Every structure is written in C-alpha cells, then in structure tokens.
Amino acid sequence: MARYRFSEFILSPRRRMLVRNGQEQPLIPRYFDLLVFLVEHRGEAVHRRDIFDRIWSDVIVSDSALSQAIRTIRRVLGDDSREPRFVRTVSRHGYQFVWADVIEEDDNGDLQASDTARTAPAAPKDIAPEPFEPLLQRVTSVAAGTTGEEEQREAAELLHALGTGDALRRLGTRPRHAFARALLRDTRWDAAEAGPVPILGEPAPLATAGHLVSLRLRRAAALAAARWAAASVGGGLAGLIGGAAGSLLLVATPGSSASFAVVPVLAAIGGGCGAAGGAGVGAGLSVAESIARSRRTLALLCGAAFGGGAVGFLAQWLGRSMLAALVGIDIDIGGGLEGLAIGGAAGLGYSVATSYVAGGLAAPRGKRRATVAAVTAAMCGLAALALALAGRPLVGGTVHLIAEASSGSQATLTALGRFIGEPDFGPLTAAVISTGEGVLFGIGLALGLTRRP
Which residue ranges make up each domain of the chain? Predict the structure, then answer.
C-alpha cells in the first residue's frame, strides 16, 4: 500500500496517520478517509455524491457534515479556502486536491520528512496573544445566518484543539454559556483532539441540553423528515400487504361467509393502521437518531416507544369515539399500550442492528440492510406475540371484535380460527395473526427507515 508526500506532510493509509514534519496530526476516522480519497483522486474534481457514497456509505448525513469535514481538514493542513493550497472547492460540484507535486511511494520506514520531497512552508497564521478569548466570544455570540453558524463551529473546533478542559473553565457562566457548552459538546465528535464535555453536574444543564437538541435537529431536520415519510410509507405498505393477504386467506377458507368485497376493505384498514404506526414510530426514531450520540440505544428505544404510544392512544380515542357516534358500538379497543410496546420493540431491534453507526442516520445496504429488517421484524413479532398472549390483539383481532359486535358483518375471523384448529377466534389464532402483523410491520418500518435517497 502506497503512502503520499505533499508539502511537509506524509499521509499513510496503511498506518492511518497524517504526519507533518514528524508530528502526527489527529483526524477522526471519516475525515482521514476523506483526505485519502481526495488525494487518491487528485487528478479530478470529486463530486459530493461520490464522496457521500464512499465516506458515508453506511449512514445518511446532511451537506453540512461534508462542509464541516472539509473545514477541519483545511485547518489541520493549514489551508485557506480563499487561497487553497491543498483542497479547492469546485462550485456546485464538490472538491479537488490541488497540490501539484504529490509523491507516491512504498509505505516502508519511518514517517519522516524527506529532503528530496519538494516542500513549501505552511501558510502563516496570526496567533492571538490570548487565543481562547476571541474564540469564546465567537461561540457565545448570536450567529448571523448560516455563515455565522459555520464560523461558530470552527471556533468550537479550535477551542478543542487548544484544550477542551481549559476552554470550559474559561467559559464559566458568562452570557450564553449554555449555548456555547452545547456547541462544544456537539463538535467534540468532529475534533480528534476534543476532551469530554459533560452536561450533568455543570451550570444550566437543562438549558444546555435544550440547545444541544436544537443544534442537532436543525442540522438534520430535512433528513429526519424524509426518513419519517419513508417509515410511514413502509409501514403502510406492510399493513396493506398484511390486510390483503389475510382477507384473501379468509375468503378462501372453507366455511367462510366472507366475499371478495372484504379484501379491499381490510387491505385499506391494514394500510391505514400501518401508515399511522409507521409515522409515529418512524418520527420518534428519526428524531432520536438525529439528536443522540452517546446513549443511542436508550434514545432510540424511548423515541420509538413514545412515537408509537402517541399514535396508538390517538387512534384508540378516535376509534372508540367514531364507533360510538356512527354505529352505536362501545368496544374497549386497544391502541396506546400496543403502540408503546411495538414502538419500543422496533426501537430496540433497530438500535441493536445498527449499533455500528457512528454519527448520521443509519443507511445500510445489501445484506446489512436485510439484517436490520430481520432483527427489527423479529423484535416487533415478539412484542406482538406477548401482547396477544396478554389478551391485547393488534389490528386483525380488533377488526374481529368490531365485526362480532356488528350484525351481518363478513369480517369476522372465526373461519380462520377453525382453519388453524380452534373452534372460534381463540388465543392461538390471535397469536398467529398478531405475530404476523408485528413481523410485517417491522420489515416495512426498517426498510423505509434505511432507504437511501
């Protein structure tokens, strides 16, 4: 494997090191991979799409994440975006590594500067006598637009480079200290030199946490909205397939009084319930995944459970009210507890299957994506089975209860119970149908969430 010499730097992909005049320059793994990718393709302007596909192949991140990565690389190289020596921005396209005399050699021996390598001194930088104060003033000010926000993030990265602990001590409780602490907490994932930035036990923990959530949601709002919509579509398609398949089986079962007319009705009911459930659980998962970095599993579980429970309680209230108002039927249908349980199970399965993710929203491909769908489906199926055994069926069981209470309905699932081997719609039938619903919902939800634009 080759290594690269340019200016006073040596870049070693094999050792995963960037060395400047014998001193290692720290970069987080994805930023190091990006620098290697640009150097390897130094003869061309690399499109942003190709960078995302190569460097962030397993996750989806916002455009600002790439801008942050390029800014950090430039800072480490001592580069200037206005007069670039190493990384040039290609307007509306991407980036190009522009240092002309890159020497490619075998990666043997020490990573020391070579006398034969054509080097140039790093661009001089003005160093303030007291470097912390101007940076602290910048991170505690009110940013003016997107440019101001990016300058604040750069200032936070520089504070990490100077020393996270010293920066926090000097920050103290000056005005807007909670926002500055949240910004330092957020950027510590992008600065290899960063130290810990605690929130609990520090001044204004609730305000800091609020600013941190706001920062991360603003940067990932569009991605979270797209994943929410995809999860809703995935859940809806799963419900549609489940409703259509179940109703076709009901029509084909010997002794059933159901006609083909129940197929589009039950398919529509299944699709609507699946879409609503996917929207709730997907929204909770997308928001939690956007804001959580250090306690991801707990955040995803709680977010999905909250989203599923909220939609479930709303559906339960609306369902009972509509039945009572339109047809005079008062049935104790479920929804809230079921949504909470299925959502929590989906969040747990999804978080376990995507535990490898470090930053961004998980977007696995191929076999890894199929694994995420399988694990999420298994957890949802187990939760649905537990609910059925506890006497709380999902959509199919609820439809059966409503049909039984309505005279002349063709949607009763008694025939399916007899087909399975029970005299009526019993616990075994409820368990089989609920488990199938849970598995289908988990598959549709996971495939929708992990869809890569």
Answer: 2-106, 132-203, 220-449
Return the SS3 of 95: strand
- Closest alpha carbon to 368 in 429, 283, 452, 243: 452
Helix (H) or strand (E) holding 266: helix 262-291
The alpha carbon torsion through 37, 38, 41, 43 (nearest 10 deg) reads -170
SS3 at position 338: helix
Is CATH 1.10.10.10 the right assignment for the domain spanning 2-106?
A: yes
DSSP string, 36-84: HHHHHTTTS-EEHHHHHHHHSTTEE--HHHHHHHHHHHHHHHT--SSS-
Could you tell me the two tokens for 348?
A: 């747990």
CA angle 234, 238, 239 (to 5 degrees): 115
pLDDT category at 119 given cuts 50, 70, 90 is very low
Using the structure block, give the residue that is written with the tokens 């977010």: 303
Q: What is the pLDDT of residues 304-319, one digit of tens each?
A: 999 999 999 999 898 8
